[in-house]
Amino acid sequence: MTDGGSHPDQRGAQFLASVQQAVSAAVVGGELPLRLLATALLAGGHALVEDVPGVGKTLLARAFARALGLTFSRVQGTPDLLPTDVTGSSILDQGQFRFVPGPVFANVLLVDEINRATPRTQSGLLEAMQERQVSAEGETRPLPDPFLVLATQNPIELEGTFALPEAQLDRFLLRIAMGYPDEDAEGRIARRHQASAEPLDDVPTVIQPDEVLELRAAARTIHVSEDVERYAVALVRATREHPDVRLGASPRSSVALYRVGQAWALLAGRSFVLPDDVRTVAHAVLAHRLLLEVDRELRGATVASVVQEVSDSVAVPLADEVPITADGPSTE
């Protein structure tokens, strides 16, 4: 995909461009969701997709995994789905028990309609998401690396669903919304499926898993100045003081903004994080972590409006407060 000797920040931009071009063979539009998906992967986190059915969530996840040469598994959330259906179980084979890995043993795991699975099954994902391992039959088994959980839920249909607890929502690094395509894009989607029964067949592999791990390590080296760090923390703390909010963002949110900002800057081709990077990803990182006061919700308050008001109220560090040199921000 890229020259191994390229500067890490340039490799990040080349990686994003290559993946976007490959995924576009199957997915029309979706540039922002794809970039957020790549950001979650390079930041070492997981993503929650909240959108209506039929907007291409599964297609995007499969095309993304295929472009990166990663293994892919899909689980459909249902009330009778058991934790072992996800993690795997042991079977008796010729007089001995043999562990059969579940779909969680893949690089990219899509859990469709996670809120239709019972809390017992939802909690079964916690160890996998946080510890990247599965404990079963008295043995701990590591999951493939990289490992990304992409969980979807329909925000419209709530009958027969089990709302994700705040503890599990907080495990998702960011939330992604697909949105409806515009008229021209929807026409291109129809023509593409007419020309090819399976658009995924046209998606090439443009990078190998080992290169993804190298880019993930490079993201951790992206410089974050003290001013940008304070700005990220101020955004998180401001959510706890907003009058519409019953439960604000946790300290884990500050870590998430830090890591997502690093990955976002890497994909932009920079070796340092700008305040605008943090502001740009704030909604994706913070919105699903907030609980609003019920009476405020009845009056029309939304998490989107709260995050926007918080972003507008917290002062953004000025350019001269984040000195930039040819090699990145000055450390003086």
Helix content: 40-55%
Number of helices: 13
- CA radius of gyration is 21 Å
What is the string of SSEs from the N terminus onward? HHEHEHEEEHEEEHEHHHEHHEHHEE
Approximate shape:
globular
Number of strands: 13
Beta-strand percentage?
15-25%
Terminal Cα span: 36 Å
Q: Low-confidence parts, pLDDT < 50 over ≥5 residues?
A: 2-6, 322-327
Largest sheet features: 5 strands, parallel
Structural class by SSE content: alpha/beta
Mean pLDDT: 86
Sequence of strands across the biggest β-sheet: 2-5-8-1-9
Please explain how this structure is put together:
With 332 residues, the chain is α/β, with parallel strands linked by helices. The protein has helices at 8-23, 31-42, 57-67, 83-87, 119-131, 166-169, 183-195, 209-219, 226-241, 251-267, 275-286, 294-298, 303-313, and strands spanning 47-50, 72-76, 88-93, 96-101, 108-112, 133-136, 139-142, 148-153, 174-176, 245-247, 291-292, 324-325, 328-329. Strands 2-5-8-1-9 form a five-stranded parallel beta sheet. Strands 3-4 form a two-stranded antiparallel sheet. The protein has a two-stranded antiparallel ribbon with strand order 6-7. The chain has 13 helices and 13 strands. It starts with 7 loop residues before the first helix and ends with a strand.
